Amino acid sequence: MSAGAPLRFGINGFGRIGRCVFWALHQRGLSDRLHLVQINDPGELDTLRLLARYDSTHGRFDVPVAPTDDGFEVAGLRTRFSKAESVSDIRWDDLDLVMECSGRDPDRARAQGHLAQGARRVQVGAPAGADMPLTLIRGINHDQLTDQTHYSLGSCTTNCLGVVFQALRGIGIDAGTYTTIHSYTNDQVLVDVAHRDPRRARAAAHSMVPTSTNALNALEWVMPTIAGKVVGYSMRVPTLNVSCVDMTLQLDQPMSRDEIQSRFVAAANGALKGLLAITDEPLVSIDFCGHPASAIVDLGLLQVTGSLVRIVAWYDNEWGYANRMLDTALQLHELNAKEFA
After folding, report:
1. Residue 101 bears catalytic tag
2. Which SUPFAM superfamilies does the UniProt record give (predicted)?
3. Strand ranges (DSSP E) for 135-219?
């Protein structure tokens, strides 16, 4: 990458997050700094082109998508497609970054596989284990991104929890629990079928499904001060998109509701602006579809009694996370520009 040139990147996995990255890239007008050169997905090209234009959750993509022999062209920029099933069969020639969005085996070995196939850096869109060189949560430790060749951005829930805890930094937390009330995902099933998780073996659109979440593990790697103090699980619900964290914290001292609320207001308007938002309107989940923040604290649902605090934070588990992927790619572009300046 030369000075002033856009960062050339690829996406592995053109599913929910991969397509949201693509849409948000053009919606935000970032193509002058981030050029999407290649997408790898084993799906049929004609189907992937259609899914790039129409979506049941986020609607129609209004920018023309023109077919080419090996992919498509958007706003004068061509993106090529490959359909390798295995990382070892993908060629990432001359790419500054690969975004790993497939959800398959998100670990250090897979990231290193992309590096071996030509990628200069790999950004994993899922929690990827304690042995990753860096788990990066924007608003908490994104300034630690330097020369790491591979790193993880945690999960959508990790990012939501992270900015909520960051806004409360400096307040002692003795213990806590949370439930992420989460829209179903494509790891679940339409009708009952065998699954490694017996609860996820049940029809996603017909029941609320309790299941595990590894969001907190990734957050503990970034914020060790909460390690062992907070526990939680996920309740998958039959909605397409938008989730929320319902969290109860036991503080080490009593605080007023106004004191807690002022922390969130200050953070949303200051250090965490764009990552943490607040609302005092009586909204429901669909109202946050397409919201780019990692967390939107619902002030109307904030409850405080003595040292016990209950917090509800909404998040678009697709769109918000895809924007964090792009934010971090922009940070890489700036780092590269300084290197070549």
Report:
1. no
2. Glyceraldehyde-3-phosphate dehydrogenase-like, C-terminal domain, NAD(P)-binding Rossmann-fold domains
3. 150-152, 173-183, 209-211
